Records
---
Amino acid sequence: MGLLAPWFLAGLGLLGLPIYLHLLKRHKSTPQHFSSLMFFERSTSSSVRQRRLDFLLLLAFRLALLALIVFAFSRPFVTSSAAGAGGDKLLLIAVDHSASMAFNGRLDRARTGAREVLAAAGGSTRAQVLSFASKVELRNEPTNDPAILRAAVDSIQISGSRSSLGDLAGSLRGLARASTSPVEVHLFSDLQRSAMPPGFAELRLEPGTRLVIHRVADADEPNWTVESVNAPSRVVDPKQTRVEATIAGFGAPESTRAVELRVNGKPAARQTVTVPANGRASVEFTGLDVPYGFNRCEIALAEADQLPADDAYLFSVERADPEKILFLHGPRAAGSAVFVRAALETAAPGLFSLDVLPAASAASLNLDKYAAAILSDTGALPSSLETNLRRRLEQGMGVLIAVGPVTTAAGSTPAAGLAIGGSQYEGRTGERFSTLGEADLAHPALARTGRWDGVRFYQVFEIQPGSAAVVARATSGVPLLLEARAESGRALIFASTLDNVANDFPLRPAFVPFLEQSLRLLAGLEERTARFAVDAALDLRTRDSGATVEVIGPDGQRALSLAESARQSTLTLDRPGFWEVRRPGGRRELVAVNIDRRESDLTLMPEDSAELWQGAPLDGARPGPASAAATNEPRRSQLWPWILAFALFAGLGEAWIASHHFNREAL
């Protein structure tokens, strides 16, 4: 037995305090009535107070309570030695199955080495097989059945995940704490340097855990990869589309590589690029002639190497016509169309097609062909147009409503039906104008707009929010931007005009991203990420709470059941390939998933780091049968929780006995 903090034993000196308190007694004299002391001779008397310990049981409990608390703070522990061969120990077989283990048969060597270690351990040792990459997967419960253990090893297959030795060490610490036996870990991995955590302390293991490393890679290997691709997710004009790719060589000499652009599995273009030694080179393809709809594209090395998983970079492209946007204006707001058109051509050329019409002449207009609508101070709409607009809004079409004097005179906003109480007019001279005040900058319409720096509002119309959410307010406190929901659709209400009469917003840089992001949101074209790395989380949230989202994996099978698709908000993309997402309202997405390019760097962990981690020289370059005997390393068991439990009982006993004695004295 030992103590981790023996200096706390100095607190045992406090045991003298209850002894001293028990020795203190008050001298009590009982007065006696006497008639007179005049006949007594004066003399000096002496008295001796006898001090002795009373309430011995109470004193014992108090001394025990103090002693136990002091002893617990000194953190006592007992040690036990690890068992020898065939003894009571847990053998953990950890096999790396990250993407880099596909290089030159590394996983096959790891599985072979794991089987040899299990055979050498014999049938009397409990063993558990686990695989790891970005997370740890337990393949079986601890057992000594050879058939179960072999099946667990054989079930390990290559994943597209990135290896993380820090996460592995954390899981090993948890397994060691949960085990009542000493733990011996045999690790089979290529030990990539990119798999190491930022701090070496994250690799620490529990005391009594023995780590044996079996490297399945002899040395650093050269590798070429398509490291990244820059391509648009939506194509309107194929001739104006450019695709750029970066080709990288890790630990590789200078090489000339042929690079192909493939569309739906067929080569579309080919170029040759020279990659410098241990460097990068860029290649560009002009023109991307793809059919309408979603297309599976990739930039790939024409000649695959020994790690084919990173020789191609997947990306998806949607070919579509420009989204039609209806622009309706009132009699005094025709000029606002000029500012809106210029902003859209600057921010997203070819993405939107603007149809500009006076609101009064659009009574019989077919709204089904429009993805979104802009109402620029239209005033009251014709009844048939108002009815159709509300119907399309409920079906999912978005509407941007700009309020001006004509709409204010009508008393309410079209489509959304929010009441307008009047307007606040600010002078153009001096500093009396309003600016953007309190705002939800996380809202898609306000993201990347720089808080509308420099925008001045001379007239803001007082819209009553009602059930609508206030996204932004002016510095005067009046709602400036509101959002109203109508089943599947939404409306953004801007409490000023889209020209430079009531404000100078169209003349400021923030106007361009505000219009682009608002229309993307209203037309259902939010800029969702179409490319992910393996193990990334895909956002499944939709506008309609409770609506189901169907996800088809790279194998063509459903990734989620119906119950899961309605309940889950995210999905882990655990395999490389193309994932199809089908959202409510007929909206579809094609998501490309690639392996993490950190797996492409096959530089190994330095040998001194590996030796420091396992605390002994490496067990050879290739996996082989390890000794079945475990080292007799001490295993510590902490005693302080038990001591504190006894201290609790001593405290309860002291309280009960003290209460009993004091009650008796009171009588």
Note: The radius of gyration is 39 Å.
---
Amino acid sequence: MQNLHQLEVIILLLAAVLALTTIAEKIRVQYPILLVIGGLALGVIPGLPRVSLNPDLVFLVFLPPILWAAAYFTSLRDFRLNLRPILLLAVGLVLVTTASIAAVARALLPGIGWAEAIALGAIVSPPDAVSATAISRRLRIPRRVVTILEGESLVNDATALVLYRAAVGAAVSGSFLMGHAVLEFFFAAIGGIAIGIGVALLARWSLCATEDTFTHIAITLLSPYIAWVLGESVDASAVLACVAGGIYMRQQFSSAVAPSTRIQAKAIWNLLVFVLNGVIFILIGLELGVLRETLPEGRLSPILLAGALIGLAAIVVRILWVPLGAIVPRWLSPALRARDPMPPWSSIFLISWTGMRGIVTLAAALALPVTTAAGAPFPFRTEIILISFMVILATLVVQGLSLPPLIRLLKLEDDHGLEHEESLAREHAATAALTRLDQLIGEEGILDDQIERLRHQYSRRLEGFSRFGVLRVEGAGDSIESFQRLHHEVLTAERMALIDLRNDGTISDDVLHQLEQELDVAALHLGIGERRAQPKTSIGR
């Protein structure tokens, strides 16, 4: 019966997620915001079962696939180009925010030690990958701003969790070694990246070793969990393991599996990430209602006030740091100023305002130990958890709800960079297909009139830059198989040409994603969706 009760709770949560996301779409509110508010509302309804989150479950079940997916859809080229501002936010801002929050906490919570205050600062300092991706991608934001926000949210968790572990260790044991903490940071970062790339390499080898679509998809689903568990087992950064693995896998996936696999995998991953995101945000609201009941009488109001002030401090520190991070490096380096001119102030302010907290803050707060090494209760544990939840709520609701009107007010310039890259990629892909057709003249099993029909279609595409349409087979009988083989060759030529453009940095992964999906759909319509790209294999062999 207990298992049945848990199943009923899961079904209720999923139904609430679907209902709230539908409402959010109707009223044009970003769904993470409405889910948190909905969770709070569900938490106060009498008779509903109380949900208590296991932090290990949150870390292991929710984070690996969400981080892997966020990294997978991050353009490596754009990430590299914006590495300086990303690191200034993911490392520099996390350190400054942690120190600032610790100082504010010491002033607001009499008796709290530096170790506990730094732990609180590390918990609330990193903006969340889930929140950034779920909110920023649904709004009209310049591409570079989105890249910086997502890149920051992917990397900052590693910095914050290393600080968190050092602070919690000091609070539990009563001692702190700076040298050990620094070494732990570098080991966690390097070890996590190495594990992520290693898992991605193993996953790619596994994908190439089998032809079964469902096995391919299962490998992609299992990979982030393997990377996470391996990272945790050796005290490396499991976050960076998933980030590195997801980014590396994106570079290999286009040529490792068949078009039908990519289409099915995308659908399954979209559903998985949607469900995980929805459940975790509604659980944030539910958990806050549970924690409220654990406080002694009269303690809730002071802690809520402290949480509001600490949330305000986190927002103010970011607003001050982001402009400094844009101005100071250019002031110190004329070469940087010439290579990368000062971005518009509207973009700078948007980055400084977009700092929503979410799943990592939630899990880190709940993972605080209950007792110290001496057996005493962990100091200020309940207060730290409630304040962390207040910061999540404040940043998600206040900043998240204000983003749409803020973007309209800032009148951000339209970013046509991806459109230009898309036109360039279409032209290059069509040219590659025509070149491959020339190479196939006289190939055994290929009819010349079929080549001419395809050449005519691709030539028209090249002239008009029209969107890719379904190339229908006009022949019949024995010629259908050869025509499918011919299409497979030219579609493969297009795909590999696009991959080459992505690899040399001419186009971003976003353009590759869009055009590759069009090629995959075309392959499915032609009945060749199960065939892998084999650019070096002649069809006559």
Note: Residues 466-478, 535-541 have pLDDT under 50 and may be disordered.
---
Amino acid sequence: MQVGQPMKRDKKMTKVVYDRYQSARNRKSELHDDWYTQHAFYDGRQYVRYRGGKPSKRKAPTYRVRLTKNLIRPIVDTAVAKLNQQKPGWMVRPTGPEEDRIHKARAAERLLEFLYRKLKLRNITQGTLFWAAVTGTGFAHVNWDKSKTLTKGKVTGAPLVKVVTPFDVYPDPAATSMDDARWCIVKHSLSAADMEANWKGSITRIQAAAESANEDAWFDADIKGYISGGTVSEGEETYEVLEYEEAPCAEYPKGRKIYQCGLITLASGELPNGRYSLHMVRVGVAGGRFWGLGIVRDVMDAQREYNRTFSHIIELRNLAVNPPWIAPNGSLKTGRVSNRPDSINFYNQNYNKPERLPPVPIPSGLYELAQSLRQSIADISGVHDVSQGRQPSGVVSGRAMGILSDQDATKLGPAVSQLELWIESLGQCILEMCQEHLDPDVTLSIVGEARSAEVTKFHRGMLDSELDVEVQPGSMLPKSLSFEREMAQREFQIGALGPPDDPQTLIKYRRALGLGLTDHNADEEVGRLYARRENVLLEDEDEANREKVRVSWLDQHIVHIDEHLRACRDPAFSELDPEVQIAHEQHIAEHYRQLHMQAQGLPTYVAAFGEDPSAQQQPEQPQQPMPEAMPPEQPMPEDAMGGGLVGGGTPEMNEALVEGGPGVSPYGEEMSAYG
């Protein structure tokens, strides 16, 4: 927790902070009951209402069925998972056209990617979104913790990001968002050890203030209990500390921040970077309203009726299976009928024997009503079967399921917009804290784009004095991978991505699949790292280093071409020496030439034997001897009947026509084959 210097007792400021806290708490009292009830519905306790912070549940006869079919929990979990599905698309805008500022903006983006994993911001996002979905508003609190570290060994300090429940936040009652709030209070419950770690000697001063509280007429009994040790939890005293933050104004141009516990101001100072440490995300934004509506609020009534409908179905089933008895008064000797197997019920013969009433049928419309209520809950929340991993009835096409999933994602669009603004504000605050507090001697190892052993060195001087963080609009929208893959395949087949035989088209196709090149083929990671090292050597002004870069038949030419082209499209490439640019172009051209040779079917291994693939010729095939020409056809003599040889071909046919076989005249004269 970031703290300032301890100050002397200031009764006036203490009373101002406390009065503002009381005003905000009174306005939130009704909201607390609603939030407790909404959280109870998520937990499955859907017959409970909260009044004054205490649960109340109406009593019911023992025969009544109170069934709970909780549809709210999977809806909330699905919505939170879809909103947290994509990583934020960080963008840090350069504050000028200078090359140094462009490189610093890229370094800031790398740092955000590193901190997203190091600080476990995905878990923070999930916790914040949970409260936003249940109560309508979620908060994340950012501070600089000197006891943490981003590297092993040396303690250098690190950003501390925590999820704060809306119950502990008390904003300016006139605010519509954190942007126009004049002040905001966050309540922290700290143990005695934490109090001493943050503010040494604070426990002694708090106890002394509690003993002298009677001297202050305005200090009522509520505050006396508030500073006299706080609440007792599991044998350990906890102290409620108010973190008061006030936005910059004419009186305080840089704002102010105060930590207060009872009569004691623990620390006071300027608001870091003039920015609140509290960052808000809302689900279900209402115009002019600070607090969001959430998902649970709108489906609670439909969930109640859904539970009642199924409870009535179970009650009618019980009546149908075990209908009630009817009997004259005094006919039973035991006073009641036993339904146990093999039991004997004695009755008075002077009366009619007991008999059951006709069973009550279960109306079929109840099932239709239950299904209608279930559909209403899905329509209101925007989370249908396809979003929860279930195939909708009557839908078998993968494309149709993808369209339905996209429709659900579209309904979450407003929540995604709020989430992106929250991520943007959070990233800006984290970078500013790193810029101010990070040890300049610290070197961070940041994983590169290939997500493997690539390392980028980072230190505080690589951050620009002015930072402008932005999240790509729509980058956190949930996506349907199956639908995207189908559309990518279709675009590849019709040539929308480019000529199918172009290497760049294959790269575009794999990226459009949503897999990414490095995930599609692990070998490409090594190829990309090697190509990037070649880019560094090719940009060297020393010609000897540039000549070390050779195109080998072992290279993955498609991957190398893609990486080299990315380097050439970089704005910094135009600033290089013309000889360096020519070396790049010749290197890429050689990759294209060898790739073309491979496409022609020429073997790649010939380069290993010192042969030139371009000069390699196909081995000559042995010539087959040409068949000899048939002798010219001679005219056949005709017999006395004017006919020629009979038979027309095969010996069988000749045998069938004449005696003696082929070449025999029907008159017994032998003739040669050619007359």
Note: The radius of gyration is 42 Å.
---
Amino acid sequence: LLVLSAFILGGIITAPFNWNLSWLERDPIPVDAIPDIGENQQIVYTEWAGQSPQDVEDQITYPLSAALQGIPGVKTIRSSSIFGLSSIYILFDEEVEFYWSRTRILEKLNSLPPGTLPADVRPSLGPDATALGQVFWYTLEGRDTKTGKPAGGWDPHELRTIQDFYVRYYLNSAKGVSEVSSIGGFVKEYQIEIDPGAMKANGVDIGKIMNAVRNSNKDIGAQTLEFNKAEYLVRGLGNIKSLGDLEESVVTVNGNTPIRIKDVARVQFGPATRRGGLDKSGVEAVGGVVVARYGSNPMQTIENIKVRIAEIADGLPVKTLDDGTESRVTIVPFYDRSGLIRETLGTLESSLSHEILISILVVIVLVMNIRASFLISSLLPLGVLMTFIMMKAFGVDANIVALSGIAIAIGVMVDVGIVFTENILRHLNLPENAGIRGKRMLQVIYESTTEVATAVLTAVATTIVSFLPVFALQAAEGKLFEPLAWTKTFALFSALLIGILFIPTLAHLLFSVRFEKKRISRIFSLVSIALGIGFLLFYGSWIALALVGFGLNRFFT
């Protein structure tokens, strides 16, 4: 009974369904709508601004691909080169651990021989996520602080700046998030428009202007200066903080006259060149993509993101428009996978509940013994809870395919309970066992259980063995169907464990209690009628009418 209680509690803790239990801290199985059948891959990005695809291919993609071939466990390497960007997809064998492969790639990138890549080119490793990692998209919109309706008033570059320097960092700190990528709008930057005539008159070329900008935008330390027994830090402050700082940067000196950037060029703010955008209902928008970390619980990650959004909502900027409306930047969900996950789980939860309920009704009608029916019916929900515990222990995520394995196994689980319970009833109804109690009943239950245990074990083992070819599947097929095979195996093993351990125990407790048969028969009939009426009202099935008719027949006979 203690073990039974532990299994029930553990199943409730690990169940993937949205059970809000304030009295119990839950640790549910990672849950997603569909299984991740993507390749075991890592991505290496390398930016080389302004270079043609051919140059990127020859000087970055090819040398990097050749160097990364030597990593242990690499199956194949795919690459693509576009304007200013190289993307290399490294596919590993399925048995290679995800983070181990990332470590090997970083070691290889850090040990590249000098001259392998052009100067100032730094390859970077992609986020630790899979192809199904994009779980949440959002947009930043100006909303009326009073009505919550769209109010506008924010430029795309303003929204992108808020996203890049405020929202993105805050959301990225949520548990389970690998990366928050910005999309849409315009990236704000300093732009210098040179004047060829002024450059020629002052003897300045583009190289000098570039060096002036590069050398002006940095702080310089000059150690310390001791004065009057005190030590002072000496610093040269040079970080650019405004257009004026950039305009006053000295390019060169002609005849003791400094030539500044503003003398040969015009400095202004402007948008960076872009090759993409975000469209929402035909209108340009600014937003972000939340990528869940590999191995995290997507459902829990989305909930963590929503908590962060609620925390940051009041701190987002507010602007008063010309008509007096106060427009606050608001984070609006654009794509939220939690809805799909909830619908998937809701469908499966409903299907499992109906299947268990129908099985219980059929058992009650056919066995015609309320205590035996309780024994058999208790196996189903308990077996499902035990399956959740094993899914958590073996790292099997809950999705539509994995939970379908439980639904497939319910018929076999009922058979296990029926075989054990029917054999116990058969022995207890023998003339020589009439009216037995105590140790004698315990001995009879033990003998009746062991009598069929070997046959049941053989039957369940045969069913489990028949699924071994599914475990041999590889690549996408294996990732798709292995969770179903695992959950079906877990459910059958749970049913066998319940049949051997718990059904005899509960049978001894239930059958030790004596009732008046006629009264129990009437109670059983009333229960059947009540269940039939309830089933008829909620589900409207012919099974309900059959159950009501069965109860009325037993009540009046």
Note: The chain is about 55% helix and 20% strand.
